[in-house]
Amino acid sequence: MLSKVLWGALLASLLLLSGCGDKSTVEPSMDERADVAAPEDDAVDTEVAAVDEDQIAAEARAAAQEAAKKAEALAERMPKVYFDFDRYNIRADMQSVVEEIAQIMKEEERINFRIEGNCDEWGTEEYNYALGLRRAKSIQDALVRLGVDPDRLSLISYGESNPVCTESNRECWQMNRRGEFTVLP
Amino acid sequence: MRALIALLAATALYAADATLEIVKEVGTALNVAVESRSDQPERLDRKIARMIEADLRVAGFFNVLESPAKGGDRPPMSASIYREAGLDYLVRYEFFTRDGRFGIAAQIYDAKEQREVLSRSYTVSREERYPFLAHNLAIDFADAIGVGGLEWMSRFVIFSRNVGPKETEILISDYSLTFKQVVVRGGFNIFPKWADDRQRGFYYTHYHDKPTLYHVDLYSGERTKITASRGMLVCSDVSRDGKRLLLTMAPEDRPDIYEFTLATGEKRRLTTYGGIDVNGHYVEEDQAMLFVSDRLGYPEIFYTRLDNPRATTQFVYKGRNNNYINTWGNYAVFVSRDTDSAFEGNTFNLYLISTTSDFIRQLTTTGQNNFPRFSASGDTILHTKSYRRESALGVIRLAYNKSFLFPLDVGTIQAIDW
Q: Would you state the pLDDT for residue B388?
């Protein structure tokens, strides 16, 4: 079942109420109809069905695991680029970090990267998604100026939905105002 | 049992401003008491009573008093004890279960006129849906006495909440967030937005290979891909006829606002600024748009006509960080960051403004207020509030110049629509 949205649950909850006294409007209960049409227990998730690990050939699985390990190790080598509060320009103290990232990317010339922009908890979500994207874009522009092929770089924003620290203090907020990197397959 | 329906506060807002038509004169509040027929009400029965009382308070024109009749058999609703206690109305209900359903049989009595104004039963199929028993009773009560205007109480709220890094779920709830039900689970699904006034479906963004906008039909269960974008994708607003969307997306890796026509799939770019343009909302019968942009070097709200989006003007002249907007008709409520610190908690307040007036009305004064959403009728605003480590759901009754807070225990809300 591809659609994993919980339709039954939703339908069952949609029209929760039907007047049933003498003075109520008499209509078929959508609630009951919904219950019949799609029992809540049929609820499914939105993700495509989970991969059945047993059906993957052992060799392919081993190769995938090896590639994932390498990608993870490479991603961990990539330093993070931190930003000032509510800003998306590359700070002076982050220039050397960007240069280090550019050097790694040039050494790994067959690998593509995704730059992920993130924000602290301040500000509103929609604006923070845009701010995160602009941070990723600033990093991309800086890397391209240092000679990295732009075709190897894609961007995405996670706004404030991907914190590395969830405490409410200045150190935590600074850690979350960052750009980081994922190795693409 | 959580005291979710207990109101934390009911505070008067700043003085009403007559230049905003949305504010109207309010007469004396009507005194009302709520009674269960049961001598020893069960747990659910008590929850229903508290929800009825909460709804009547939030309505804005009732003053909820304790019943003067204590314990034992209830006197007739016509008894003088109620009149003498100064009640205008008495709500008496009986909780029942029948054929697997849960319900109340309610009577509302005019204590001064000595007449019954409403007698009606309500049922729900599952216990946790009990808030709708109270909400619908409140709606009918207001209609029966000629005040009306509470239909917003029965509308659904849809919201996404963070359950982990890059992991969310989408829920529907009643307006008080007491009844909650997960409708999208698994993965990273954000920015749910009702697709039409009747709440028959909604849009949301799913992060897969790249951010993708889906429409979900609640009645058929069908999920339809609408469009996708690099970088980010948010459905910020839906036109009144449901045929056009204002999207923030970044096909060129910078966030701009596009108008998307559902019938044709056409995307019309409305903003071209190289920085941040986001959060587009229709105003003036969908002929114009308010949106947030950092083109002044900080987030601010701008106005543009859709037939000439090059002619953009600054809309709000207040403070230096206004970063979220919601609209109803020609009115807008926006979030303004009233402090500016990277090192301590900031204050975010809500303000009301109109495209036909320069007046700005402050709606909140403390804490971090976020996600303001107008009701369908425009006279009520729902929002979240965090203050001194407490989180609450706020309901602002613009027409009655009152605000109410419900304890909020749903985790971190990512986005919300009403």
A: 77
